[in-house]
Specification:
Aldehyde Dehydrogenase, Chain A, domain 2, 15 strands, 403 residues, alpha/beta, 20% strand, 15 helices, six-stranded mixed beta sheet, 2 domains
Length: 403
């Protein structure tokens, strides 16, 4: 029960996050804004009005008036403060998805229905009329109803999610994968960060600012997005998008791998180098254009890099690194030499960012760079002719699972 309850709670969070994202993407003007967790779950502000929206997601529960009763009473209390000149006028909206029971509001809400079903309650055996306690008459309640919208037939979570993805595809003129793994993942992070700010002003963002923050150039690891997709499915989708090719073209591919002392294991790194060589090389005698990958390891010490190379050499894994003899300077033409079946070169190891930059600049063939990092990009390419993909990972083992 606890596990199912936790899942339902998380789905409720996603429903509100997605509605926030959808609300801001559908704003007409760039300077219109949303406010997270201010008057209600989501406040939508345009140049002419403010709408306070509360959303509820009960996919397994029948709709009953009691479910939204507290929200209606709270909104009426706010309306009273507006009437008293204490707060600015707003519109109110309640949006929810339920398993059934939607017919209970088929007749709409009039003043009598409002009083009987939403404003009357019992506390400690005593009947209370919330509108009387607020000193609001039927005319006031009628005015309140003109400002209130109740939608209990809102879209199901996954339907709403697909709507968000379509809006992102349109906003950035991109494919579905980019909309999900670049922009939606980043949108979740932005909304989550806004929601935990203590000051209301810091929980507000315009459409223009939101879109600017969304425009990222790489796959960012977002724990909320990964939880939504499932870690296994998330890694598999990245592999399918970037590292599954039926016929591998003879491009010059650069794999930039970050390591950290607390998660570094030489055997893991050697295994990854072997995998990269096996998957991204063509070295048979029949291949007219043989090739093998370039590999740069970021965050490894000079001593450990040397030890790694010694291990590869002992294991008869042939590589080149652009240094032709002891203490020789890096020679870009040396590392650019063609790998083939005859010379047995299975990988080209770059020792530094500078070596990487020199090599990328010297090559004229199609170049593709895949950078894996743990949160901070360590290499940027400004050359538009170089294909560049940045992927943030959580664990070193994620790299192997993706590749």
């Amino acid at each position: 029960m606890k596990d199912r309850s936790a899942v339902d709670t998380i789905r409720g969070y996603f429903y509100q996050f997605d509605l926030s994202i959808l609300s801001i993407l559908r704003l007409i003007n760039p300077d219109d804004s949303i406010e997270i967790e201010c008057t209600e779950d989501i406040d939508i502000r345009t140049a002419t009005e403010l709408t306070a929206t509360q959303c509820k997601y009960y996919a397994k529960t029948e709709y009953n008036h009691s479910v939204i009763k507290e929200a209606v009473m709270y909104m009426l209390s706010h309306f009273k403060e507006v009437k008293g000149g204490l707060k600015p006028k707003v519109k109110y909206a309640i949006r929810g998805h339920y398993a059934s029971g939607q017919h209970k509001l088929d007749g709409g809400i009039d003043v009598k229905f409002l009083k009987d079903n939403f404003l009357t309650y019992t506390d400690k055996g005593k009947k209370h009329l919330h509108h009387d306690e607020l000193n609001l008459n039927d005319t006031d309640l009628g005015e309140f109803l003109t400002l209130l919208t109740v939608d209990i037939q809102a879209e199901e979570l996954d339907v709403q999610y697909r709507a968000v993805i379509r809006e992102l595809e349109t906003a950035f003129n991109c494919k579905e994968f980019s909309a999900e793994f670049y922009f939606y993942s980043n949108a979740l992070a932005i909304i989550r960060e806004l929601s935990i700010q203590p000051a209301p002003a810091d929980r507000t963002i315009t459409k223009k600012a939101f879109l600017k923050k969304l425009d990222t150039s790489g796959v960012l690891f977002n724990e909320w997005f990964v939880q939504r997709k499932g870690k296994k499915a998330y890694l598999a989708a990245l592999r399918k998008e970037y590292f599954t090719e039926l016929n591998i073209s003879p491009f010059e591919r650069f794999f930039l791998i970050e390591t950290k002392p607390q998660m570094y294991m030489r055997d893991d790194l050697k295994e990854l180098i072997h995998i990269l060589s096996e998957k991204w090389s063509k070295l048979s005698k029949r291949d007219p254009a043989p090739f093998c990958p370039y590999i740069y390891i970021h965050g490894i010490s000079d001593d450990e890099l040397l030890a790694l190379k010694k291990d590869l050499h002992v294991e008869e894994f042939k590589f080149i690194d652009g240094h032709d003899y002891q203490n020789a300077d890096f020679n870009v033409h040396s590392i650019m030499q063609k790998a083939s079946h005859d010379n047995g070169v299975r990988a080209k190891i770059l020792n530094s960012i500078r070596n990487l930059e020199e090599t990328l600049s010297a090559i004229t063939k199609t170049r593709k760079v895949f950078q894996f990092h743990f949160g901070q990009s360590y290499f940027e390419s400004t050359n538009p002719s170089v294909g560049f993909v940045k992927i943030q990972v959580e664990l070193f083992s994620d790299i192997k699972a993706i590749i």
